[in-house]
Amino acid sequence: MRNLSFIVLFLLSIFSIHHFVDASLRVKYLPGFEGPLPFELETGYVSIGESGDVELFYYFVKSERNPENDPLMIWLTGGPGCSSICGLLFANGPLAFKGDEYNGTVPPLELTSFSWTKVANILYVESPAGSGYSYARTRRAFETSDIKQMHQIDQFLRSWFVDHPEFISNPFYVGGDSYSGKIVPGVVQQTSLGNEKGLTPLINLQGYVLGNPVTDKNMESNYRISFAHGMGLISDELFESLERSCGGKFFNVDPSNKRCSNNLQSYDHCMSEIYAEQILLRNCEVDYVLADTPNIRTDGRRELKEFSGNDSSSLPPPSCFTYKYFLSAFWANDENVRRALGVKTGVGKWNRCNSQNIPYTFEINNAFPYHVNNISSFSFSFFEIGDHDSMVPFSSTQAWIRALNYSIVDDWRAWMMSSNQVAGYTRTYANKMTFATIKAIISKPFLSCLGGGHTAEYNPDQCSLVFRRWIDGKPL
């Protein structure tokens, strides 16, 4: 009887682990891409939460170099509530939309030259529930927050590693951009604490990577004014008046301070036609939401009128940078695409960013304390900053990094593309903490702006180059 009890308990312990991990799917073909995928793509769901009521969807792309030994990185898209397709198909993944004008069929995909998966395994996770194809079974499970995300992602990782033990020894990094600047350092701390407590499997955590990270909303708001002035977007007179009337504080302004409020209205007017994420690009419509009742032609092709709030005459031309967001909504909601990816039946329509529909509690006003804890514990941290982003100005990130008070081991200097063109500027601190800007450059053949924006997608080539050098331990 004692042996039987042991067997029952052993089986229950196995069940308790694998209850949280759904079967994964090896994806060999994707609608929109011709032929088999020339890289290994896996998708799946991991059940997490108190009762396994949260199902987080992921895409896992193996490194094209040496997946057994190359680093493994989890990539978290910001929002909160934006799909990890933003990373996979826009910023640093192996595929991207061709950008052809939409013709009613599945938007075509092509291989990229800038994929970070050429040197690293990347696990793109849709978090929290409600992002992309992730979902929750109950209303309570659907409710989330900054802190809850951190715990759920740590739980996700340990469950995922149980199913993928071959990657446990790989150097592991946490990466993300935009709002995930609040989440990534918390995940790093949570995972480190879990390792210290003996949670298994132990994760070989080495450091983290952030692009234009939201860190302290007050600081970022304050630095936007000086950024706009430095970029010639507001006049000397308005800048000086703002400084005097608002006292250098431009967030949560006292409404009784009429002069400050009026100056901020003038600032808003000057910035109203500027595309905040990359000030050199034209200001186009940013997002598109599929209507609840699609208008399908008899030949099965979706019409442009399928998009609520837009008619075909108001949609941006393919020359708009955000046109790919429009394409992604058609692609990700195509039934053949969802079937190929293994999306569960009953999951609602896909939106690139679903922030407004997720019951989310914003708890972290300032992520700086997490950085203080993490950077003293890990050998590698990397901050990649587009220098033409007015949402999270490079100067605000510089300010809080400077406040960490780490000694400089390689002072401010240019880092170069292979063409001997300055690609940005960098500084390295003690403990191998690296700060690098991504400078906007002009491509001669097309005379087009190529960089320096809010996320890696605005200049994927430069971002890829600096990431590859950093992850391989080479100087920029």
TrEMBL record:
<dbReference type="InterPro" id="IPR001563">
    <property type="entry name" value="Peptidase_S10"/>
</dbReference>
<protein>
    <recommendedName>
        <fullName>Serine carboxypeptidase family protein</fullName>
    </recommendedName>
</protein>
<comment type="similarity">
    <text>Belongs to the peptidase S10 family.</text>
</comment>
<dbReference type="Pfam" id="PF00450">
    <property type="entry name" value="Peptidase_S10"/>
</dbReference>
<dbReference type="GO" id="GO:0016752">
    <property type="term" value="F:sinapoyltransferase activity"/>
</dbReference>
<dbReference type="GO" id="GO:0004185">
    <property type="term" value="F:serine-type carboxypeptidase activity"/>
</dbReference>
<dbReference type="GO" id="GO:0019748">
    <property type="term" value="P:secondary metabolic process"/>
</dbReference>
<dbReference type="GO" id="GO:0006508">
    <property type="term" value="P:proteolysis"/>
</dbReference>
<feature type="signal peptide">
    <location>
        <begin position="1"/>
        <end position="23"/>
    </location>
</feature>
<keyword id="KW-0732">Signal</keyword>
<dbReference type="InterPro" id="IPR029058">
    <property type="entry name" value="AB_hydrolase_fold"/>
</dbReference>
